[in-house]
Amino acid sequence: MTGAHAPSTPAGGVKGGGFALAFIFLTVLLNMIGFGIIMPVMPGLLMAVADAPLSDAARWGGYLSLVYAVAQFVMMPIIGGLSDRFGRRPVMLASLAAYSFDFLIMAVAPSITVLLIARLFSGAFAATFSTANAYIADISPPEKRAANFGLMGAAFGLGFIIGPGIGGILGEAFGPRAPFFAVAAIGALNFVFGFFAMPETLAPQNRRRFEWRRANAFGNFRQFAKYPVMLPIAATIFLLQLANWTFPSVWSYFASEKFAWGADEIGWSLMFVGFMAALVQAGVVRLVVPAIGERASALVGMAIATATYFGFAIAPDERTIYALIAISAFAALATPALQGIMSRTIPADAQGELQGAIGAVMSVSMVLGPPVMTQVFAAFSEPTAPIGFFGLPIAPEGVGVYFPGAPFILAGILSGLAVFPALAAFGRIARPRTPATTPAAE
Q1: Cβ–Cβ contacts within 10 Å for residue 111, how many?
Q2: Distances (CA, A) of 150 to 133, 146, 156, 180
Q3: Which alpha helices (H) appear in 109-177, and where do they start and end?
Q4: Judging by beta carbons within 10 Å of its beta carbon (0-12, 13-18, 19+), is residue 160 exposed, middle or buried?
Q5: Integer Cα distance of 199 and 19 in angstroms
Q6: Would you place residue 204 in the very low, low, confident or very high pLDDT band (cuts 50, 70, 90)?
Q7: What's residue 16's pLDDT?
Q8: Which of 166, 313, 317, 375 has the fewest Cβ atoms within 10 angstroms?
Q9: For residue 127, which of 359, 387, 333, 353 has the smallest C-alpha distance?
Q10: 130 falls in which pLDDT band (50, 70, 90)?
Q11: pLDDT band at 150 (very low <50, low <70, confident <90, very high)
Q12: Around Cβ 268, how many Cβ atoms within 10 Å?
């Protein structure tokens, strides 16, 4: 979608292109800050709005994450299709205005019902990454596209690093609603900046008719029928991503329950998570994968993920937690290595479809992971309540087992299971004959 309808003279032919690139960078940054900024304060906000203990707040947090993820999964191809029909500028500005207004609604939400509805719309209007990528393709000459897409990746990572820190500081100083007001205000300012700085980049002759059949979030899965060799690795990536959602969905509740951390302490810890992830992904992956090979990198990453998840579950103190965060960042070796293997097994003209299929797998993990992990946390954070899962009792009254680290045990199991489809895939895919010809070859 991103490049097929772009003008033939990008970047230099767009008046104000530099400001436009800055606007897109800020938009992606804002979306990720908005995602991260609410994480440290969500337990406090939900406990206040629902008038419920932490375990029930975690359940509601899972439902909020679910509606957000479903909305984003469904809306991403729709918003991308609308931008191909009406242009990048109106779609991006409309989404940003609605996203800002939605955070204002969440800031003043009087009930869980209002929060759920607002979070649903927040997910829908946060699905602007496809339009942002299309805009980058429009304004960038071919030789600069990789660098500009890398800039978007930097905005993505930077937003997650600074978002939790800002949320923790504001939440501790002014209460759990303050970060929502902050995102709404920043979004409004970014809308004003974009209104004046963002030109339209999609020429009328390059626009296409909007078609619902092409705006199908499940269409990308058809690629697995065309290239069945991808299925085992796709299953591996799915299990790893499902486990990985333990951090954003449960961490705030887990740290509050087990270590009695406040919003600021939770925010600092999440900032450290983002910093270590960025450090490993930007530097270590580029060095280690070519040195030891894709298959070894994938297996090492999965082993680290499995071990550190179990470590988080039983960590006794803050010092241990921070050490585990630093080590767990190296689990990021797995997914890029697996994606590299997949990209070598299909034709060059199907690479775009492959990335769409991988994105669909990750989106489904985002839909399933948070509600599952928060339900597990809730079930094991009430020592005297019957153990239940999605409302179904699995132990009698008064036989509850208190173990807030239970979601990390589940994450460790999922990461360990991911090894088996990976090994099955490695057995079916031949190693490249000329290792030196590819950066990540074995």
Answers
A1: 10
A2: 11, 6, 10, 28
A3: 112-125, 129-139, 142-174
A4: buried
A5: 9
A6: confident
A7: 45
A8: 317
A9: 359
A10: low
A11: low
A12: 17
Phi and psi at residue 395, in whole multiples of 5°? -155, 150
Question: CB–CB of 121/102 below 8 Å?
Answer: yes
| pLDDT given at position 136 | 75
Among 375, 373, 370, 378, which residue's Cα sits nearest to residue 65?
Answer: 370
pLDDT value for 96: 83
Q: What is the dihedral of CA 77, 79, 81, 83, to 10 degrees?
A: -150
Q: Which residue shows structure tokens 């699995």?
A: 394
CA distance 384 to 274: 35
154 three-state secondary structure = helix
User: Following DSSP, what letter does each residue of 66-124 receive, concatenated?
Assistant: HHHHHHHHHHHHHHHHHHHHH-HHHHHHHHHHHHHHHHHHHHH--SHHHHHHHHHHHHH
- CB proximity list for 439: less than 8 A, separation 6 or greater: 289, 290
Give the pLDDT mean for 140-159.
69
Element (H, E) at 388: strand 388-389
More confident of the two residues 417 and 139: 417
pLDDT surpassing 60 at residue 375: yes
Distance CA(52)–CA(440), nearest Å, equals 50
Structural tokens at position 336: 């890029």
Quick one: which of 105, 120, 115, 103 has its CA closest to 68?
A: 120
Token digits for 281? Answer: 């992904």
Angle between helix 334-345 and 351-379 (nearest 10): 150
Burial class (CB in 10 A: 0-12, 13-18, 19+), 221: middle
What is the maximum span of the chain, computed from C-alpha positions, in angstroms? 70
Residue type, 89: R
pLDDT tens-digit map of 417-438? 999 999 988 887 765 544 444 4
Evaluate if residue 372 carries a pLDDT over 70: yes
Beta bridge partners of 388: 393
Other CB atoms within 10 A of residue 142 CB: 10
Please name the amino acid found at residue 380.
F
User: How are beta strands 388-389 and 392-393 bridged, if at all?
Assistant: antiparallel
